[in-house]
Amino acid sequence: MEALRRDSFDAFLCDIYLPDLDGLKLLQIAHDQDRDMPVILMTGRPGVETARKAVEWGAQSYLIKPLPLPQLKELLERCLRQRRLAHAQRALLDSNPNFIRETEALRGLFDAAMDGMWMAFQPIVSWSGKNVVAYEALLRTKAQALFRPTEILCAAESLGEIHTLGHKTRGLIGEVMQANPNLPGVFINLHPLDLLDEELYLPASTLAAFAPRIHFEITERMAIEKVPDTHERIGRLRALGYKIAIDDLGEGYSGLNSLAELEPDAVKLDMSLIRGIDQSPTKQKMVKALASLCKDLGTPLVAEGVETTAECDSLVALGADWLQGFLFAHPDFPFPTPRM
Length: 340
Known about the structure:
Low-confidence stretches: none
CATH topology of the largest domain: TIM Barrel
CATH class of the largest domain: Alpha Beta
Number of strands: 11
Mean pLDDT: 85
CATH superfamily of the largest domain: EAL domain
CATH architecture of the largest domain: Alpha-Beta Barrel
């Protein structure tokens, strides 16, 4: 405590259980002295309550001992990069009053959107089985501004609050799954930067208890190659029981590469391939090839964004079985019953 008050540090690594105090109290003291300093808490006795408090009180990470040195080294290096970025951002804020006002206004809108946040669920149906195989969890808010999910996501990216948004959405989904234990499964959108959040890998997290029924969707709109040690991180999620799905396959350049690299447990076609497929021989050939490939790999293929009966008939004829879209149900809560 004396050192924290006297000196400046680039990062702070601390055990939670200490002889005369605990790491959570030291976390508060550290941030009172320097709010930009990354604090990493570690413990050999993990618990849901301490993990929740660590995240809520601003810990950069919550690590479970024993921890591999390469993991710790990578985390510390990332903390140092974030520390330098925080200093640069603070210098920009100090030199640009207009930017300060704009940022403060955006943060106010973002906080309001977070306060009013709830999750809608849209069914994914099996056409052959005429049943719901899973639901996709979709972000919604009661706030008037930043009403669209894309607006909330852009605000989170601008404010450096992607992890905060991820914690909120996963917490809400966990509460729903706890209250509805018979849900067949849930697809959850995962921002690529969420892979850098150590909270995602906590065995004590709310979602971990339901991991075998969860598909994390990773979209290819942001190159997955920019996330360090992607395969190791995906492996850590799979070790906990989670499944991985590629979202929006066919939208960007890296789709087939992602399919080969990630070996997903499910694939979701981009809506641009679905829209008007009954009128497009080229789209029909592409979807037929992808459906055949996924069938050979044993990977479920989800056609999302189905809006018309003609699109549905074409997709079924081309080999797609898992379907999602307004034709069956709009996202809502509680869980909408699909029209089959």
